[in-house]
Write a structure and sequence with these properties.
The chain is of the alpha+beta class. The chain folds into two domains: 80 residues, no CATH class; 132 residues, Immunoglobulin-like (Sandwich). It contains five helices and 13 strands. The strands form three sheets. It has a five-stranded antiparallel beta sheet with strand order 7-4-9-1-13, with no helix packed on it. It has a five-stranded antiparallel beta sheet with strand order 3-2-8-5-6, with no helix packed on it. Strand 10 and strand 11 form a beta hairpin. It is rod-shaped.
């Protein structure tokens, strides 16, 4: 390609410089030859060729093939240097089947299964998990015995079959009635959706924004 272009520029002479003057305004560190620049070179060569020794038409064909190959290589190089970025939907789909953690004290119930709550007991002893519905009415109470202080615990409610699907609030209280703070919600992503440029995760009765996720686990074996 370099040889073909050089021969064209030599044949065009001084008129060629003015014909491609616009092309010289490209980046000083890495000048490139566009299709329009190439056509200007060909036009200049035809206009300035020696009538007694005209350029062989086969040279034009060869140079056009060289330029086409060069353009294809440039396109491949640009793609490698600037790979296409995944769309929001593609990024969201990566969450499906993975367990996620977010700050909060809510669980979701769907198809008789509930998401989980993570918490750390401040002192050793017995604790009680109190589950309340959307109106704040307690619907269940579960005793959690002999928990170790400072050790991360997972509470997963086993709701009765008659429990309506939806979102419930969980409170973890100690033997002295003091609530445990810093609760976290955990569940496996069932479906994802996008809304106004944001990703929303459905954990099964519990919906959280992807921006609230603080940890992502491996794909669940149950999926």
């Amino acid at each position: 390609m370099t040889t073909g272009i050089a021969s064209l520029m030599g044949a065009a002479g001084g008129a060629l410089s003015s014909a491609i003057g616009g092309a010289s305004a490209t980046s000083s560190s890495a000048p490139t030859l566009s299709e329009a620049d190439f056509l200007r070179i060909l036009t200049a060569e035809v206009q300035n060729q020696d009538p007694t020794t005209p350029v062989d038409p086969t040279q034009f064909a060869s140079q056009l093939v060289q330029f086409a190959d060069f353009g294809e290589l440039q396109s491949i190089n640009n793609t490698l240097q600037n790979p296409p970025q995944p769309t929001l939907a593609q990024s969201a789909a990566a969450y499906v089947g993975r367990s996620v953690v977010a700050s909060g004290n809510q669980i979701g119930v769907a198809s008789g299964k509930a998401t989980s709550i993570l918490f750390t007991p401040p002192v050793a002893g017995n604790y009680t998990a109190i589950i309340a519905n959307a109106s704040g009415t307690p619907v269940a109470s579960v005793t959690l015995k002999n928990l170790q202080a400072g050790q991360l615990q997972t509470f997963t409610w086993n709701p009765p079959s008659s429990t309506p699907s939806g979102t419930y609030t969980v409170s973890i209280v100690g033997a002295n009635g003091a609530p445990v703070t810093g609760l976290q919600e955990m569940g496996v992503v069932q479906t994802v959706s996008t809304s106004q440029g944001s990703v929303v995760l459905n954990l099964g009765g519990l919906v959280i924004p992807a921006s609230a996720v603080t940890a992502i686990g491996q794909v669940s074996a149950a999926q």
